[in-house]
Amino acid sequence: MANIKSAKKRVLVAQRNADRNKSIKTAVKTAIKKVRAAIEAGDKNAANEALVAATKSIDMACTKGVFHKNTAARKVSRLAQAVNKMA
Question: What pTM does this model have?
Answer without folding.
Answer: 0.86
